[in-house]
Amino acid sequence: MDQSAFYRVVAATNFTLLGLWWVAIKDREDLGGPSGAGRYMAYLVSLQFTIPAAVSLVAQVAPEIPAVWRIGFTAAGVLGAIGIALLARQFALRTDATVLPWVFGLLGVPLYLGVVVVAVWPGFADAFNLALTPIEVEALLLSLIVVLGVQEAWFVTMTPRRETTPSSPPEPDS
What we know:
Keywords: Membrane, Transmembrane, Transmembrane helix. 76% of the residues lie in helices and 0% in strands. With 174 residues, it is an all-alpha fold. Helix 1 (3-26) packs antiparallel against helix 3 and helix 4 runs antiparallel to helix 5 (100-120). The protein is elongated and about 50 Å long.
């Protein structure tokens, strides 16, 4: 597999998805308007495109020097796991969805943590008899993360917001 070509495509695709996400939320009062909580959730979704795009660029910087992509993937995995956990929490707080926040968390967090494990443990693929190099395992994980990110954007955009009531917790300012 041509790693450079793969990561070029992933970077370009995710930056395109990020741009489309910005267009999709532009006129959504609940995601881009004065509500700090709405903007926060929109930002957390944008991370699901920004992180795979950025780490794909890092993977192309010096593919012959594994430490470069490993450091990038480790940082991306940690930030992604935190971001998706926060997104799942915000989604649960701001909508009546009960299953999807768990799906986001139970799929997304382990995928991002898998990125970290493969980056810090180069023998991961060999330990599990995978016929893949570590950067190829990262490519598979990143592909799944991209698919999940698109689903998150869809559900965040299409799931009705919870009606605020006097007993609802106040939304953060930003």
